[in-house]
């Protein structure tokens, strides 16, 4: 019984884990340097921002929502961070904290529109997707670029700490936080309830609006965090930062087995999804394949992952059909 | 040309073995860089270099960084990069340098300390001044003009605009820039933008398109509006994409360098740097069929921007 | 008010047009307006399809990739000197095939459309880039404007788009097939029990969407002598925004093509309006976002007031 | 006698591990009303879904009009003259009532034009036949549950079917509409239509049915002419045991006033000037016609549509109920009418559903503790005799009645002072029903104030200490449960001064 449950719940994640491991061994056999520690750290370093966005996208999709604005918000936060530091002469630390606050406010805008006016998240965040990017361009006139950050700040994105890329510990902390939130607290439980049936959640006395607001504000804060790390990694902040990241994040989350309809999904699945995409994109360089192939394979992998969830159902349907074809036999066995 | 995309890796970078040089465009799927790559392929073949050509599918500094990092672990011998963004990529290039990989840049430069040489097809100043001079010449230093750019955030275009404006203020004070519109690197959008620019600014004399898809887009718009001759089109673009309009007289001149030569020279220079034949301080460099190339400081100069017009455009097939 | 959304979008459009008439009367010149309409005709065709898809409670974000593939294929066929009577159906067929692939995955396997079309969007886009490396396709001379004169060609393109809109709008309201789309979008299980095959309807909607994209791509190809392999970039967001601003509910079953039409007109006018009003272009995205938000917020406040 | 209209032979049907039907045979003749009876989860709905092609049977044959049919689908069943009203209304919420009716009636060919005025006329006529006062142009999402049920009935009538299936059509109807429906059924029977009729209300079986088949655990335990069987025998067949007196007597003496409403109103839900008191240990019944506003009143008390006028007092203190959370904090529980949409989360486990409203209490510090949760769930599975594979099973694998028990368990777990039950036994079988009734009595005996909304008149009369009667959004009169009879309640509900005789 317990076994049955465990194997059932773990199914998608196990398959995905196998995919990740296969990818790893394949690329390791093709590219001489693929498996090196340096390369592993590179993979981590370059997937932290998308990983962070994917992490916060998970509870959002669990509630049946979606946030298309995270990439644009990353851009907006990056340039506001730069502006605070350069023009308002904040220390990177103070600027960072303010940026997190700005992220929360921006997430709050999404949350307000979605909960207060009961508007569909897809549309609200489609609007803020344009709005945030537009604001970033309007503030910088598209031109202004923030650079020459102090080394102490760049450390966060470019150096090592505790033997790993300096941003990795932050990512791990956020991952643990989100995992606990989703899997071990009543908040996570209520996200799922809302994902399955927002009306039902209201009738159960779950503060639906507050919970939904919470995930979008969280997404805003973490997008701001990703913006800071992005700025530190590149050493520059510009209005085009994070373009298209929302789609990468959503891809990773869905690849990780989270149902786009809400309710079903895990944070470790998302992490595996991020890993699968990051390793593929990195490994193909080692296999000397052009970049377009990485994109194509990601798309195909996503379709395959989706299909894997329906294959058992298809088999069951086939079996049922075979049973109807041989009714007498079936009656005997039953 | 696909073979070099996915060529067999050459392990080790010791002398005598085949040298691997990685060439990065700002973005793939851009005719300009494809043309550079054709030149690079030619040089690679002549020199026996193993060429890796890869870059982000859309211009994205973060992705460029990632690919450079990949190349570092891959253990290439030399990297030649066209940088979407100065600061963004320099960290990664410095890291490559520290690992003993020879780094040069082409098309768009990184910070000077992040590379050995910059293969300079034309300075931003050269481009900006040439464009503005051409505009001033066509309009007799008189009237309004508008610029269509790729995106508001593209670093090199921002740079060019600066010099265009500087030149205008200095030499063509009677001309007025009335609008700057982005076209997202799309020909169709450039066409729409040019159409509304013309109707919004009835006195518009000239459209300056500073990204390559925008030139044919603007030309088509002018043609459809029936304002050929009345509104002139100039821009930065490939001859192949503009031949039709230049010959029809819609587009007056297209400014560019010989992109194949740029790719060719880049690989030649990279190989020379890797082999230790080209060292900082050199003042000239022998680029085989291209002859002797002047080096100014750490800039390897391809030459002046080239102006393609009705008379010469048929001689070029890129 | 049943048509609140459609009317409010129409009013917003009217307000914009009046503002332009006062501040920038130059906007109203026949030739540029004709050009604008021609340029937006393909978008309108795609928006019609998008409206159908969204009414069917699905979404298709792969249209831009489909659009590019159809454009390039049509361009290549035309440059092989095939006549337009072959190229046009071919483009529509290619679109229909691409749409059918989405349809099979979504209707046949029951996968969520937003993810399926996200995956096909990436796959097709990258495949096309890989194959074409961004190279323009040069067309023979007789392709532009169908070989007609420019103004005849422009009117043809507009006429095709408007006819399509009219026919589809009537079909959606007056033909059983159209009502089936509403029924499936409203409740697929109820449709199944009523004898309407939801899977077939969904599949056909996507295939039809693909065919429309093929048609739209062709309407775009004939407007210039070269095909940009990046044609159509961003068209998915533009059409989704237009359709939703025009009052088609993202949750399916509600809305109509007139709203989508009004939405497209509104969004299509923003960019030229900014140029005419001499507003700096770096405000464009922000203003677009504001308009989308304002449209849905106005509606949200109204329904909230109505229910509170 | 000629071949039966419909003949099922040894039908089996499994859902993964659940074997819902285990070789059921069944026949239906022309001009007969054949009732299908059974406890919750016996397989009634599954059987009729097999007949309508909504489910494919695993084995067994189906003969319609004497011909064996293979691969029945909803469309082909429709062509063969099968029409059905499903237990859960299968309507299109975004479409108008007229179109909902038309889509069920018109041929499913996609390439034909639509005549809207004909559609509206047809809908108006059909709705009149079932006595529904609904504008055909109204969107179905705006209709209340019972109104939707009426639309569904109207639709099935319009099909002119030879075989008409009704799965609990009266579950949310009031007596008056039930009577109208029975009139229609009798007329159809006269016209030679075969009707399969499912209901948990035994009186109805005796009122309309000719034959009755009882299902138990997916097997048929016998078919009998109604004239040869009595209530006690039927119940014995269904549950396999004797069931005690249906309505347990009231044991408690009402105590202090717990909840007192004065002039409560809410413009949005069209409820106004509602005043009444409920005492500890009392069952306060709320009766009324469809759309009288009982559910709306419950939603006000539970904070879903907060009141905008009047005062609410709980244990003497004036409170404002702004949201379900505040209602729960004040000790008010609400078991909603639409259990699949509101009462339970179908995709979640029995355990998670049980603890859903008491997260803060059972999971202090927000940390999930599965031990405590499962313990609580096990307790309610035992106490309410919920038929489930385990406390980890998803609620959608349970039958309707068992789902209702899970919904009830959630609110019992919250330990409320006031419990509002909206149609608590709707679609619940007799066995479970009497258990629920006993439970309500026990709760009252423990000092709980119970407000019970029901359209089941005997239930209202049998269970209530006092009966509030709602009409047009307000309480028009309050009767004493011991002295009230069906006539006076109906008369009050209809707004008549003299007792109605229809009952
Ligand atoms: N879609 C389904 N998936 C899995 N199990 C199901 C499904 N539908 C029904 N069942 C199971 O089949 C059995 C019969 O259910 P059914 O709905 O036919 O009962 P019923 O007699 O109609 O009960 P009720 O009176 O409560 O409506 C139940 O055990 C139920 O849990
Ligand atoms: N979602 C809704 N939108 C608009 N009006 C509604 C809605 N639900 C119910 N109503 C209307 O509110 C009034 C009260 O309905 P309500 O469901 O409260 O009746 P009720 O007395 O609870 O009936 P029953 O308990 O028999 O279902 C009716 O006129 C109904 O049409
Ligand atoms: Mg049932
Ligand atoms: Mg009710």
Q: What would your notes on this structure say?
A:
- The complex is a heterotetramer of chains A (about 325), B (about 325), C (about 300) and D (about 500).
- Chain A is mainly alpha-helical.
- Chain A is about 80% helix and about 0% strand.
- Chain A has helices spanning about 1-30, 35-60, 70-85, 90-115, 120-140, 150-160, 165-185, 185-195, 200-205, 210-235, 245-255, 265-285, 290-325, 325-334; strands at about 160, 165.
- Chain A is globular, with a radius of gyration of 22 Å.
- Residues about 325-334 of chain A have low confidence and may be disordered.
- Chain B is an alpha/beta fold and about 325 residues long.
- Chain B is built from ten helices and 14 strands.
- In chain B, strand 12 (about 290-295) and strand 13 (about 300) form a beta hairpin.
- In chain B, helix 2 (about 30-45) crosses helix 10, helix 3 packs parallel to helix 4 and helix 5 crosses helix 6.
- Mean pLDDT of chain B is about 85; it is low at about 1-15.
- Chain C is mainly α and about 300 residues long.
- Chain C has a single domain (about 5-300), classed as ABC transporter involved in vitamin B12 uptake, BtuC (Orthogonal Bundle), CATH 1.10.3470.
- Chain C has a two-stranded antiparallel sheet with strand order 1-2.
- The mean pLDDT of chain C is about 90.
- With about 500 residues, chain D is an alpha/beta fold.
- Chain D has three domains: about 5-240, Rossmann fold (3-Layer(aba) Sandwich); about 245-330 and about 415-425 and about 450-503, P-loop containing nucleotide triphosphate hydrolases (Rossmann fold, 3-Layer(aba) Sandwich), CATH 3.40.50.300; about 335-410, no CATH class.
- Chain D is built from 18 helices and 20 strands.
- In chain D, a hairpin with a 2-residue loop joins strand 4 and strand 5 (about 65-70).
- At the A-C interface, helix 5, helix 11 and helix 13 of A face helix 5, helix 10 and helix 12 of C.
- Bound molecules: adenosine-5'-triphosphate (2 copies) and magnesium ion (2 copies).
- One magnesium ion (MG) binds near residues 337 and 422 of chain D.
- One magnesium ion (MG) binds near residues 294, 295, 337 and 422 of chain D.
Structural descriptors:
heterotetramer; B: 318 residues; alpha/beta; eight-stranded mixed sheet; six-stranded mixed sheet; 10 helices; elongated; disordered N terminus; C: mainly alpha; ABC transporter involved in vitamin B12 uptake, BtuC; two-stranded antiparallel ribbon; 1% strand; binds adenosine-5'-triphosphate
Q: Count up the helices of chain D.
A: 18
* Rounded radius of gyration of chain C (Å): 19 Å
Count of individual domains of chain C = 1
Shape of chain D: globular
Ligands and ions found? adenosine-5'-triphosphate, magnesium ion
